[in-house]
UniProtKB/TrEMBL annotation:
GO terms for molecular function: GTPase activator activity. It is found in: Membrane. GO terms for biological process: endoplasmic reticulum to Golgi vesicle-mediated transport; Golgi organization; vesicle organization. It is a multi-pass membrane protein. Pfam families: RabGAP-TBC. It comes from Oriolus oriolus (Eurasian golden oriole). It comes from the Eukaryota. The chain crosses the membrane at residues 190-207, 219-237, 351-371. GO terms for cellular component: endoplasmic reticulum membrane. Keywords: GTPase activation, Membrane, Transmembrane, Transmembrane helix. This is TBC1 domain family member 20.
């Protein structure tokens, strides 16, 4: 009864945020992050477009079959989609699944044709199929296109350089929380490649229960683009004892970590990932992340502007906020100097910070911080969301 009452309350709060003028996107983000996420696919169909600032009244027309004739990626996409049987609900009739697979191919080719700067990668279809199953083909096309030019942008470069850069955040996060696990993994020389499929498919490829996949998508859509790597870190940290009990060699540790458990405590891990993002924002983790030259090429750096454009979804409000952002430019530069000093602090200070903050920040506080202030840790970036 208590669970049902909480669920009803949350549904009412979500619809209140949707019906406010302007739409309360910050509240929707908090709802997507907090326990249970957005609860139902019906609600996701309404909220996901708001989180991505997609106008549902102006959806692209369904693509024609000529897409397939003109696309250099068609054969690879076709092969990947044919192999994606396990991503469809068990028991779905073959003819229904085949229709969805055709739609999946068209969505991918449509996005690639409209955005020639994007390069298809194996695993991309695992993300697209999640949107297709939840919101249908036309809306999925619009959402995936926005996602591909923002959160997923790094994965769609001609090379894997930026993807590797994001994977490089994994070990520093683990080191901040559990140096013993970090040092063990370093000794085993396991690297981070075990988490590659987690990251580039937003865990869609490795989790068998669709409910868990969409719950994570609620979380990731509401947060900074680097949140999936924080979630990857908390999975490793959750398996601390298994890791330390493993043979300390690359093959053994890689095999253990690449077999992701299906019974993870998702709500607890989501809460911890949010906490870690608040305690150890990206700018504190690596010097590379703070370098403007690298940052300008990554999705993380454009997220501040992307979030700004979706906050209230009213052009005059966005323009006023942009003006205020420019006035704060000098403060941001001073903040970068502070970041450089943080990066040089010895490890003991990390534990002092952990002790002061507590190992688990209340989820509500973490969610609020992620929504309100996480973006201030991204490197300075000239606002260019509509080039």
């Amino acid at each position: 009864a208590d669970f049902d009452a909480k669920k009803k309350r949350k549904v009412a709060e979500i619809y209140q945020a949707l019906n406010s003028d302007p739409i309360d996107v910050a509240a929707l983000r908090r709802m997507a992050i907090s326990e249970g996420g957005l609860l139902t696919d019906e609600i996701r169909r309404k909220v996901w477009p708001k989180l991505l600032s997609v106008n549902t009244d102006d959806l692209p027309p369904l693509p024609g079959k000529e897409l397939r004739e003109d696309s250099k990626d068609y054969q690879q996409v076709l092969l990947d989609v044919r192999r994606s049987l396990r991503r469809f609900p068990p028991g779905m009739p073959d003819d229904q699944r085949e229709v969805l697979q055709e739609e999946l191919i068209d969505i991918i080719l449509h996005v690639l044709k409209r955005n020639p700067q994007l390069h298809y990668y194996q695993g991309y279809h695992d993300i697209v199929v999640t949107f297709l199953l939840v919101v249908g083909d036309r809306l999925a096309t619009a959402l995936v296109e926005k996602l591909s030019t923002h959160h997923l942008r790094d994965f769609m470069d001609p090379t894997m350089d930026n993807t590797k850069h994001i994977l490089n955040y994994l070990m520093p996060i683990i080191d901040q929380v559990n140096p013993e696990v970090h040092d063990f993994m370093q000794s085993a020389e396991v690297g981070t490649i075990f988490a590659l499929s987690w990251l580039i498919t937003w865990f869609g490829h490795v989790l068998s229960d669709f409910r868990h996949v969409v719950r994570l998508y609620d979380f990731f859509l509401a947060c900074h683009p680097l949140m999936p790597i924080y979630f990857a870190a908390v999975i490793v940290l959750h398996r601390e004892q298994e890791v330390l009990d493993c043979e300390c060699d690359m093959a053994s540790v890689h095999h253990l970590l690449s077999q992701i458990p299906q019974d993870l405590p998702y709500e607890s891990l989501i809460s911890k990932a949010g906490d870690l993002f608040v305690q150890f924002p990206p700018s504190e983790l690596t010097k590379e992340a703070a370098q403007a030259a690298q940052a300008e090429r990554t999705a993380a750096s454009t997220f501040k502007d992307f979030e700004l454009a979706s906050v209230q979804q009213r052009p005059d409000t966005v323009l006023r906020q942009r003006f205020r952002e420019r006035l704060r430019g000098e403060e941001r530069l001073r903040g970068e100097e502070r970041t450089k000093s943080i990066l040089t602090k010895p490890r003991t200070n990390r534990f002092v910070k952990l002790a002061v903050m507590g190992l688990t920040v209340a989820l509500g506080a973490a969610a609020l911080a992620v929504v309100k202030s996480a973006l201030e840790w991204a490197p300075k970036f000239e606002l260019q969301i509509f080039p």
